[in-house]
Amino acid sequence: MKPLFTIATVTYNAEATLERTLRSVALQDYAYIEHLIVDGCSKDRTLSLVKQYIEENQTPHSIRLISEPDKGLYDAMNKALLNAKGDYIVFLNAGDCLRNSDTISLLAQYEEKGSLPAILYGNTHLVDNEGHFLRLRRLSPPERLTPDSFLDGMLVCHHSFYVRTDIARQELYDLRYRYSADFDWCIRLMKKAKCLHNTRLTLIDYLNEGMTTRNHKASLKERFRIMAKHYGWLSTILHHGWFVIRLFYKP
Fold first, then answer.
1. Among 247, 153, 157, which Cα is nearest to 210's?
2. What global pTM score does this model have?
3. What is the separation, in whole angstroms, between the first and last Cα of the chain?
4. Which tens digits make up the pLDDT trace of 169-217?
5. Where are the alpha helices (DSSP H) in the chain?
6. Half-sphere exposure (CA, 13 Å, Cβ side) for 79?
């Protein structure tokens, strides 16, 4: 039986960037895909775009829409985790695209000794608002990913991090974090996972603008606290002494 992939897209007033994301999922040549869209009651054309996408679906993919008020991005992502039907789940923001039409097909081939790896991960390209390539992501995935890898930063982009859904929903996003709950979530999952598989593929074209980018300093402070929680204050400071000075020193 081929694995089912849930691609979860969380939206709120995303009409400007959503269409290319919907199109990139629709173009996937792999049949076993559930595109789960969790919308926070958008007030622009987002919902009409999604409904049109559902009505015009000519692929074997399943498309589901949940539209209801939420408590923010990570609350909506928790809803996706709890409602996903796939064997794997990945989050794809409005504006982001799967790298190629065979991206999910290639991921579906990974199976070890009759079981699915707990986590599949790969690389990320950064693109502009028109979808044009800008550069490789500054942090790149290690050959072997472990829970300690993120002491050096978020080496794997959240959207190139595919998690087996049975494991993923055991660790919901911590709503105490406004900007970096994904960083904490990935670390907790890596601690739980027994098999993390490096696909060595570029999996996503990531729009070089998002909530974390727009709130860069607040996000970095949250990440520092998350690293201290998982790795201890001493280890975190030793690895990121320059980071502490830059964040907290005011001349």
1. 157
2. 0.91
3. 61
4. 999 999 999 999 999 999 999 999 989 999 999 999 998 765 455 677 7
5. 15-26, 46-55, 73-83, 103-107, 165-168, 181-192, 211-214, 216-231, 233-239, 241-248
6. 21
Classify residue 82 by burial, with Cβ atoms within 10 Å: 0-12, 13-18, 19+: exposed
Predicted confidence (pLDDT) at residue 71 exceeds the cutoff of 70? yes
Q: Which residues of 144-156 are buried (b: 16+ CB within 10 A; e: fewer)?
A: ebebebbbeebbb
Compute the distance between CA of residue 141 and CA of residue 137 in angstroms, rounded to an integer: 10
Distances (CA, A) of 73 to 1, 51, 152, 226: 33, 21, 25, 18
Give the chain's length.
251
Helix (H) or strand (E) holding 90: strand 88-91
Q: Are 117 and 166 in contact (CB under 8 A)?
A: no
| Distance (Å, whole) CA 227 – CA 122 | 22
